[in-house]
Design brief:
Elements: H1 5-80, H2 82-86, E1 94-99, H3 107-115, E2 119-126, H4 136-143, H5 150-162, H6 167-175, E3 179-184, E4 193-197, H7 208-219, E5 224-228, E6 246-248, H8 254-266, E7 272-273
Parallel strand pairs: 1-2, 1-4, 4-5, 5-6, 6-7
Antiparallel strand pairs: 2-3
Helix pairs in contact: 5-7
InterPro entries: MctB
GO cellular component, one term: membrane
Protein name: Copper transporter
Amino acid sequence: MHINFKYFIVSIGAIFLALGVGILIGTSMGSSVDIQEQNAAIVTDIDKQFKQLKEKDDKLAETNKNLLAKLDNVKDFIAGNENLLSNQKLSGKKVAIISFNEKANVDSVKNALTNSGASIYLDIQIKDEAVNTTNLEKINTKLGQKFTKKEEVISYIANSIKNSSDTSPLASLEELGLVKVRSNSGSYETINSIVVFNGSTASGKSKFPGLIKPILDQIKEDKYTVAIASSGESVGLKDFSKIKIATIDNIDEAAGRVSLVDLLASSNIIGNYGNSLVGDKLLPVGK
């Protein structure tokens, strides 16, 4: 009988190949079981962590709910005692109101100031038309100037406010529709504090860099200044903090008006107050 070694070699190779495949399959099956066990352990651990986080979240939600309820109680108390909390705190103070918000109703702010004993020496609104460069020729003709850019017009407005004892420039600016003078005692140099009503453009952008800051840079001097805004209208309000001006973002609420009176009474507190994330505290207390 002829022995074919090629047959044996192929057979032995086939045996080892089958053995290798068997080992591989067995190993794979074992690994699959291990992986499944590992996955199950991971899922269990994730589920445990999720439950722990949910418990913490539920506790935080309950704590937050209780804090908000207490905050509402504080606001209700302030609203019911606004006059008492602010009574005569600003006696003898002379205040200027400079508004950059054409839609804002400043009556509640003026009432809060006068009820607390302050005298409003200047109340003026700066209109958006002040930054309109298309009417420079008309402005120059009316004012007898040679302005070539809006920055010069803004500087002229600021200078007219500082020198409000001469009422002619402000009157001309009002005729041009650049400002609205609601009251003017003509004694700007005697004013102690400035209340700035923040405003945004029609497109929702801040007026701070192009209009508000240039005017404040000229008129602020050493006068204590507070920037205010109604709830939901605080676009750009945080920019005032960069130039060391206190801010209030809820002046439409009693708490905001009480904060304003307290800040003006102190004349030295710098901080952010109100309801939004911009506000550090509801009221300027503990300073």
